[in-house]
Design brief:
single chain, 585 residues, mainly alpha, Transcription Regulator spoIIAA, 2 domains, six-stranded mixed sheet, two-stranded antiparallel sheet, 24 helices, 8 strands, 61% helix
């Protein structure tokens, strides 16, 4: 009898979800996937070229970064609908690394961008294998909004010179704004190019509400025909894409210098964070809409594999697309075969018709990127956040300013730093309360919310609403001592510890110090409602031995009853009268 390794089929199903889809593919889906693939391809070409240019690379590499990643994600990606490729959210990050390191050399720019894609891919794959798919949840929504708003502003500013037909030296978003104004005032604007770009932008926005009409394609094709038929290149010196190289992307290992390693590593990690944050949100949104489930760890692996493929096949870092994915969905896509069909059509274009886009104006490409960048801005939800949580709103603004002033890469550091500070602040200064017994309300409640609640004479009930660890242990000690000193007759302090989910060595030692301090003042320290796993930690760290087993109570009620019996306190609870009980809110 042959014994199959346990869960072997589940293993390959998990790591190769595309093969599972192929295995269960329904023939009835084929016409819809093919049609959706054709529609998607018409959008992939102008967008891929535009984002390559926005990232500081020749336009052809935007198509290279589209073809292979789509094929790879179709095998490793868990989502049936997501479209992978160059993305406007990454353009500013890539440009921030490529521009200063390449020194104007296109091939060096391609090498650096490819190395960033490999770093990003490895980071995502390793994080997925280590089951770290939750890490992007560590950045709060306001911080993510601030970062993405800053990225959108940076991308928008970077494309304005191309839209107006001139060029500037990029020295950061704010300096770019000053340089743009100088060029405008000096008369450098190519008004013909601006008219073409503005017209393309207008077409995109006018057709945006109609999901089934490819506004980007219509705008770009119209601009290309206009430039070609009216000879705007010769008459008004409008910049165009030019003839694309013939051929498909080939396997290539990007070799960088030792001086490039640091910036490329930082940029690759930043790209991994941004791309997975976007991909995970988009993936979960479509999974909920389609009634399916997506594994965030496998999503990391799929995204990483696509980036790795991009890096080794002359591409640059990629992500999921919030603009192209809806196009695939609206066109009737059922599976990732849509992306495969679109990828093959783009490859066929490079082999059979490389001159088709030679008159594609740079201003039209800038319009495509600007339209996508505007779509990245989030204002409505920030208004709501400002109304209910002003502090978090200003955190978002700080992130936006950080990206706009210092650039995308420092902006990542600022966003992560603020997230860590925000987390530590909340954990360092958590909510705590002294509790009392409110008439007609079951349980013990915060005296600040129930000012008429009664306290048991000589007993302090103190609730701590957080884990106990090194950052907040001293604060916990201060608050307990303050609560104990609030009444000169205090004999016992009971910590309502149900919200305490963990304790570390530092906090255990400080608890021992607190117990000793209270004992010197003739006050007992007790605990109630400890969860069993936390109780085990108390025992392991020696808190049980220090305080004594008899000082731990299963409920606040038993702790109060024990105190009343021991000290013969005159205390009559309203429930003893058989009064009606009102549940607390």
């Amino acid at each position: 009898m042959t014994v199959r390794p346990p869960n072997s089929e589940d293993t390959w199903r998990r790591w190769l979800p595309g093969l599972v889809t192929a295995r269960n593919y329904k023939v009835s889906w084929l016409p819809q996937d093919i049609v959706a693939g054709v529609v998607l391809a018409t959008m992939l070409v102008p967008v891929g070229i535009a984002y390559a240019v926005a990232s500081g690379l020749p336009g052809i590499y935007g198509l290279y970064a589209t073809i292979v990643p789509l094929l790879v994600y179709a095998v490793f990606g868990p989502s049936r609908i997501l479209v992978m490729g160059p993305d406007s959210a990454l353009a500013a990050v890539i440009l921030g690394i490529v521009l200063p390191l390449s020194a104007g050399d296109p091939q060096r720019a391609v090498t650096i961008a490819g190395a960033m894609a490999i770093v990003s891919g490895l980071v995502c794959i390793l994080a997925g294998l280590a089951k770290l798919g939750f890490v992007t949840d560590l950045l709060s929504k306001p911080i993510r909004y601030g970062y993405m708003n800053g990225i959108a502003l940076t991308v928008l500013i970077s494309q304005i010179p191309k839209l107006m037909g001139f060029s500037i030296e990029s020295d950061g978003p704010l300096r770019n704004v000053l340089a743009i104004f100088r060029e405008i005032l000096s008369g450098s604007v190519n008004w013909a190019a601006f008219a073409v770009g503005a017209g393309t932008l207008a077409v995109i926005f006018l057709l945006k509400p109609y999901k089934r009409i490819p506004g980007i394609l219509i705008g770009v094709v119209g601009a290309t025909l206009l430039v070609s038929l009216l000879d705007l290149v010769g008459r008004f010196n409008i910049s165009v894409l030019g003839t694309l190289p013939v051929g498909l992307p080939t396997f290539h290992i990007p070799v960088i210098t030792l001086n490039d390693v640091g910036p490329v590593l930082i940029g690759g990690i930043a790209v991994a964070m941004v791309s997975f944050a976007d991909t995970s949100v988009l993936s979960r949104s479509y999974a909920a809409r389609m009634g399916t489930r997506v594994d965030p760890n496998q999503e990391m692996v799929g995204l990483g594999a696509a980036n790795l493929a991009a890096g080794f096949f002359q591409g640059f870092p990629i992500s999921s697309s919030s603009s192209r994915t809806p196009v695939a969905e609206a066109a009737g896509s059922k599976t990732q075969l849509t992306g495969v069909v679109a990828s093959l059509i783009v490859a066929l274009l490079l082999v059979a018709a490389p001159n088709l886009l030679q008159y594609l104006p740079s201003a039209a490409l800038a319009a495509v990127v600007i339209a996508s960048a505007i779509g990245l801005f989030e204002f409505n939800d920030l208004v709501r956040i400002h109304r209910f949580a002003p502090w978090e709103f200003w955190l978002s603004i700080i992130c936006l300013v950080g990206v706009a002033v210092f650039g995308a890469i420092p902006g990542i550091g600022i966003a992560v730093g603020i997230a860590v500070i925000e987390f530590l602040w909340k954990a360092w200064r958590p909510h705590s309360a002294v509790l009392g017994r409110a008439e007609g309300v079951k349980g013990y409640h915060d005296l600040k919310r129930y000012p008429n609640a009664r306290r048991v004479p000589g007993l302090v009930l103190f609730r701590w609403d957080a884990p106990l660890f090194f950052a907040n242990a001293e604060f916990f000690k201060e608050r307990v001592l303050e609560a104990a000193a609030s009444s000169p007759e205090t004999k016992r302090v009971v910590v309502a510890a149900e919200p305490v989910t963990s304790i570390d060595v530092t906090a255990a030692d400080i608890l021992a110090e607190l117990d000793a301090t209270l004992k010197d003042e003739g006050i007992e320290l007790c605990f109630a409602e400890l969860k069993d796993p936390v109780k085990d930690l108390f025992k392991r760290h020696g808190v049980f031995a220090q305080v004594g087993d008899v000082q731990f109570f299963p409920t606040l009620g038993t702790a109060v009853a024990s105190y009343v019996d021991r000290y013969d306190v005159e205390w009559k609870d309203w429930e003893d009268d058989g009064s009606d009980v009102t549940e607390s809110s």
